[in-house]
Amino acid sequence: MLTIKAIKLKKPAGLDQFEVEDVTLPQVTRGDIRVRLHASSLNVHDYFVVKGVLPTEEGRIPLSDGAGEVVETAGDVTEFSPGDRVISTFFPNWLAGKPTAERVGSISGDTVDGMRGMRWSHPPPPSRERREAIATSKLRRSLVLG
Length: 146
Fold this sequence. Notes:
Mean pLDDT: 76
Structural class: alpha+beta
């Protein structure tokens, strides 16, 4: 198991309400990759979450945008290799197709944990743009803060 530092938002929300905590990441499993985060940003949506304008759970890990490098893959992952560069996607469940309530109902750093430390998995999208869609969502799979 790998331990990382994760930034979590405490209540009441506010720019001074972050705490850094140790989080243990599970090993990569079927369909997962691990990514070292190289860059993230605080966009206006993130700012509203952090300020409490958009309520979220205590302990939420903020930030919806990020980019990094694949450092580890599960044995069944063929689309990516260590060293590949990947970016995040604002809606982690919208990998392909038209927007639906299910696809846009999760927002990184808002309804689910964001870029400052997390692990996520998604099934691959059924489309010819599979590699491109996965590239934008793979960062959600398993982050290692770099």
